[in-house]
Amino acid sequence: MKLLRIKAIAKKELIQIARDPLSLAMAFMMPVMLLFLFGYAITLDVNNITTVVHDRDRSSLSRGLVEAFRESGYFSIVEHVDDHRDIDRHLDSGRAQVAISVPEDFSEDIVTGRTAQLQVIVDGSDSNTATIALAYAAGIINLYSERIKGVKPIPLVDIRGRVWYNPELESRNYIIPGLIAVIMSAIAAILTSLTIAREWERGTMEQLISTPVKVPELIAGKLIPYFLIGLIDMVLSILMATLVFDVPLRGSLPLLMILSGIFLFGGLSVGILISITAKSQLVSSQIAMVVTFLPAFLLSGFMYAITNMPDALQLVTYIIPARYFVTILKGIFLKGISLEFMAIEAALLSLFGVAVFALANRKFKKKVI
After folding, report:
1. Closest CA to 261 of 232, 301, 292, 285
2. What's the rounded Cα separation, in Å, for the pair 164 and 268?
3. 291 near 270, Cβ under 8 Å?
4. Does residue 26 contact residue 190 with C-beta atoms inside 8 Å?
5. Is beta strand 119-122 parallel, antiparallel or unpaired with respect to 98-102?
6. 59, part of any domain
């Protein structure tokens, strides 16, 4: 390959991008907007669980229990009802996710040393929230029981837990790095999915075919401008993650950029391959979105643990490059690990990029069909 020819193709593509405001907006604004929207919209934290209370005891002990729920910060008391049937209406309408029903003899049972009954009703239509809400409720009730009893039971086993890498258990620290991988997967493929197809639609491909530019030179020249744009988008995403969402970056920034470059090369090559195959900008962009965003979102381990998926789907995840990039991003952001622990992921991303680039070269023919 001659560098002069590649430079000429790259320069032509840069001029074309600069003259297309839509492409510029897509290149720089879309990653920032998507990260901002998804970053705030997607959360695994369960807070402010809307709760309705039916207190038939109306004693200081029952009021103290309700106040313990309120002070926990996890439950938001939206209303006190006088009829048990109102609980059904609140849960059916979605105005409340949890209902606490205190029986009439609640305080009497406590004073006389009997085990007091307490009913906690949870809306199970959202199983994740329901499970967490029940765990929160059990913890609050246990703490309240110890407080009013005045004696803390001595456990047979003293458990001292410690959370590494994300001690605050903030879901954004887990979500944002994976979200960057998902967004960059889609953006990289969409950007280059328009390049070859654009030439066919505008009738300029015949001119390129008639030149002495070889296929690898043409594809490389088309990739370079978008590779630089992808690196800029990656820097913007890292800045947003650290400055806007306060996600810690504990690892090496140069290592992160190098591995991001390898991932971008593969993603951009996928877009080029789609553009060569489809020859239509509309069809190419739609295919790029389907084959990159959805698999990256669902099968990369970003939202759902791969080990919990059916065996057949677990096999499919091995051909999703975002799977390896998610691991790399979480490892560098949260764990601060070195290349030694990510060598396999880096090697597979490199292999993927080279394979797709070679396939794109093989697929493209310098002739008018």
Report:
1. 232
2. 35
3. yes
4. yes
5. antiparallel
6. yes
Continuous H helices in 164-300: 171-193, 195-202, 205-210, 215-239, 253-278, 281-299
The domain that contains 143 carries what CATH number?
A: 3.40.1710.10
pTM as predicted: 0.83
What's residue 19's pLDDT? 81
Residue 256 belongs to domain spanning: 3-42+170-363
User: Does 327 have pLDDT greater than 90?
Assistant: yes
The total number of residues written for the chain in this structure: 369
Number of domains in the chain: 2
Residue 265 is predicted with a pLDDT of 96
**Residue 81 shares a structural domain with residue 204:** no
| Separation between Cα atoms, residue 163 and residue 173, nearest integer Å | 13
Same domain flag for 30 and 57: no
178 and 314 both lie in a single domain: yes
φ/ψ (deg, to 5) at 342 = -125, 20
The pLDDT of residue 338 is above 70: yes
Q: Does an H or E element contain 53, and which? A: strand 49-55
On whether the CB atoms of residues 259 and 340 are closer than 8 A, the answer is no
Q: Is residue 221 part of a domain?
A: yes
In a domain? residue 156: no
- 184 vs 206, more confident: 184
